[in-house]
Amino acid sequence: DKRMRFFILFAFLFSCALSSPLNQRAIFEWDEHRKQVPDDWVLIGPSDQEEQITLTFAVKQQNTDKLLQIFEEVSDPRHPNYGRHLTTQQVHDLLAPKPSDLQTLRSFIRSFNATPIAMTPNSDFIEVSTTIQIAEKMLQIQYYNFQHKVNKKVSVNRAPYGPYSLPLMFSKSIDFVSPTIRFPTIRAPFKIINSTSSPMALVNTPAHLRKLYSVDDTVGKAQNNSQAVTAFIGQYFHADDLAEFFRLLFSEGVGQKITTKGDEPTGLTAGTEAMLDAEYIMALGSNISTEFWGFSGKAPDNPDNEPFLKWLELVSNTTDDVVPKLFSTSYGEDEDTTTVDYSSRINIEFQKAGVRGISLLFASGDSGAAGDKQDCKNGQFVPMWPVGSPYVTGVGGTEGGDPEETAISLSSGGFSNRYPRPSWQSDAVANYLSTAANLPSTSLFNSSGRGFPDISAQATGFIVVCNLIPLPGVAGTSCASPTASGVISLLNDLRLQQGKSTLGFLNPLIYQNLDSFNDVTKGSNHGCPSHLKGFPASKGWDAVTGVGTPNYQKLAKVVLSLP
């Protein structure tokens, strides 16, 4: 494409013109092998110089090694410090950046007649709202406007064609600046209509799911329990849809409300993804205070920003008495689409939540062992992010259940190429790799990497009320994450009723209690191309369904026995 080549050349010349040997710069997040522009974004042209953009500077934190140590101790049921979570103030005090780093950054921002704003109590995220023109001068880079190929209402300003930089003095004090080179991922729930496979063609009503996972008529009772779902870029919540869902499918929920947070949780048209998450976390985690956290990325009255970061900033900013004890998120992308600098810092943000006793669950994705585009990369399977992070709980997908569940082929699962296998899953994954039948060739995956998902739940045959219309046949791990999350919220509820801590980071607990989950031993996810098999389900943990689906009654006994 001639226009694309012209813009790349222009960006290169632009950055060269701004550079000076007398003003050495530190380059951030650049990997020449990384795909610059994802296939589902179309270049429109150079960004409007007067358009507003909100830059987030991730300032390097101190004592991250100590944070990780505490995270591991308070999350391990076998450790004396299990459940002894930190307060948000203790977390901010522990990780506070060096005052000199903050002072230097603020002076730099002010030199452009811009105003630095602390987004967290300890200023580990600093934001500045400015024009594209000023942002380009700050970072010595060229921004362009891109439109999403499918959702043409969504456009973003990004600078993917060359490395962004800051004066050399920031090389050791800034983790990254956003939005710059990263593009948001926009997914829709995978949809299957009128599945003919039997007995897989079950309709997953709230009543059926509650029976399947031994929840039955259990509801929340603890006054201080809460749960939340997240949504990004045009996935809007409608209260009328939730009320209609309860009226049609879960009468026990009639009258229950949801609280909205974020910069744009509601809009003209409800999103299927958004309503799926809200309806099913409330159907399983019934009578528990629920919130919908929605972030736009770019609203009409707001400048361009990074919505995933906005969510993590708000978690960090929300006090312990009101922050949700659990978040279910159906966001994800190929692991290699994020830079190491970015994902490493986000991992610290995940740990910050865990040490406060907050559980983070992520849908594993709907591309089997392949990438988001159903492809292999360099002849290998493609792990997903953030579900491949060692600091969150990944939720894969199942189908059937009469008499037993099987793995659903769309369920993303596999092994991280970036993060080594954590100790809490070491035995379970080693067992899988040594005993499972029909494993793919080890040349296709990193057998020493963090295995995902961790658990699973039903991922097909859901009915979602969206814009007052009941939509049948909705499928994907976006169904599984809120379903499993509702069950976990009920376990939190039991502990809170007893005056105990919330469960926080779940994975050590999960892998120490394999027999409290419904083991899924049949089926597999698909490989690439999609007619080939990926990873098989197997006894114990596997790279499609994790350790299996939750059994509430068994897990209730476990969590009540813990300190």
Structural class designation: alpha/beta
> Uncertain runs with pLDDT below 50, 5 residues or more?
12-22, 195-200
Total number of strands:
27
| Global morphology | globular
Distinct helical segment count:
14
**Radius of gyration, Cα only, in angstroms?**
23 Å
Mean pLDDT: 91
Helical content, roughly? Answer: 25-40%
Distance between the termini: 62 Å
- Beta content comes to 15-25%
- Major sheet size, sense and barrel closure: 8 strands, mixed
Question: Can you describe this structure?
Answer:
By secondary structure, the protein is an alpha/beta fold. The strands form 9 sheets. Strands 10, 11, 12, 13, 15, 17, 18 and 21 form an 8-stranded mixed β-sheet that branches. A 4-stranded antiparallel β-sheet has the order 4-5-3-9. It has a 3-stranded antiparallel β-sheet with strand order 2-6-7, with no helix packed on it. A hairpin with a 6-residue loop joins strand 25 (524-526) and strand 26 (533-536). Helix 2 crosses helix 10 and helix 8 packs parallel to helix 12 (477-497). It is globular, with a radius of gyration of 23 Å.
